[in-house]
Amino acid sequence: MKKSFLLSFVLMLSLAAALPGQETPVAPYPDNLERLQGDNGFSRGFGDTNHSFSFDWFDSHAHLAWSHYPNLLKGGQIQEVIDRWLGYTGVYHSGRLILLDPYLETMEWAKNDPRVYVFWWLVWEQANQLPEIKRRVEAGLIQGLKLHTGDFRRKENPDYHVMGSEAWHKVYRYCEEADLPVLIHVNEHWGDQAYTYGRGAKKFWARAGYTNQELLDYCLSELVAKHPKVKWILAHMNFQGTETLSALFERYPNLYVDTSIGMFLREYDHLTAAEIEPYRKFCIRWADRIMFGTDVFAYHPLESSYPGSLHNWWLPHYIFISRLGLPQETLDKVTHGTCEAVLGKYLKKMPAEE
Ligand SMILES: [Zn+2]
């Protein structure tokens, strides 16, 4: 199946190359092959501008509205926020998401909504929560864990070695046994990034005594390499570039990335063909390790001070992937298939499948 797809893909590419006016990084979808060859050539232009398409985008990195934090939302309010949010993103065929969230209230609510998953956002003092992690996994309240090295920034002594403490290794061992994925944010802003309103943390780096690279290396050698059965998802790490990430994927077969922050393009911006090419190759080669994710805050329009969240944040992640003109199989994996595979036995059944 895969082989024949590849063969027809190569055939399509050579056909496309032979036709004038088709200098585009988008390979024709297999159905279009019939048009290229049949109907005495009359219909060959029909659908040429239709890119490959995925019906089921799955946002693997989302948060509840900012308003969740000062005022803990109750079940009915969470329902309202999420219904509204998925109403917006449903326009772009995105109907499922993973919330990274610390609150039991969210988990108890999400349990009954097959569109929503929760990765428990723990802080580094919570390694002693292992029995409660087990309970929540078994009760269907959570489908993964989320860890964040930004915690160290808020401490007087920003040492990061707690990540490799025996208590945390016990948690990681449980994740291996339970096939529970872990998303980890292991990078802190260094400088300001005007394009995404990023704020720098120069003051932190001036006193930290270590670098982003050391933090990542420790995570890879102490967590990822020592727990090879855990699926580790690096949040926001695409900025490193396709070559660096490819090398990491080669070295660690249990490593994944989400597309948040690093793969971002505003709606009236463009990528040149030369910019598209390495990303396109990267996505095709590593489709099984890349998960569409946006780091969006699903918001309640009445309360939020971020009314542009959909257009200024969520959509640019969608646009970046869309502009790459990926083959259907790759697009299906990047937009949802890889996320489904990472969730594995924790994947919820949608009502239509029951
Ligand atoms: Zn996030």
UniProtKB/TrEMBL annotation:
Domain annotation Amidohydrolase-related: ranges: 107-344
Signal peptide, first to last residue: 1-18
GO biological process: secondary metabolic process
A single GO molecular function term of this UniProt record: hydrolase activity
A Pfam family recorded for this sequence: Amidohydro_2
Cross-referenced InterPro entries: ACMSD, Amidohydro-rel, Metal_Hydrolase
GO cellular component, one term: cytoplasm
Keywords: Lyase, Signal
PANTHER family assigned to the protein according to its UniProt record, in alphabetical order: 2-AMINO-3-CARBOXYLMUCONATE-6-SEMIALDEHYDE DECARBOXYLASE, ISO-OROTATE DECARBOXYLASE (EUROFUNG)
Name this polypeptide is given: Amidohydrolase-related domain-containing protein
Organism lineage: Bacteria, Candidatus Glassiibacteriota
